[in-house]
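Might you be able to review the protein record set out just below?
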Amino acid sequence: MTPRTTSRKGVTDMPKGRPAASRGHARSAVSGRFVKLSYAKRNPRTTVVHKKKS
């Protein structure tokens, strides 16, 4: 049996921006718990994003 080969067509590379860890931390304004940056992006009214000092 020969191994299957997959084409790279349709495979996306990682985004070219900064890594998530260097953007800062997001916190829920309601509960105070830390949340993912993707959650903060979807819920801007109820989250606070603390930017990392450079």
Remarks:
- The longest helix spans residues 37-42.
- The beta strands are 25-28, 34-35, 47-50.
- The mean pLDDT is 76.
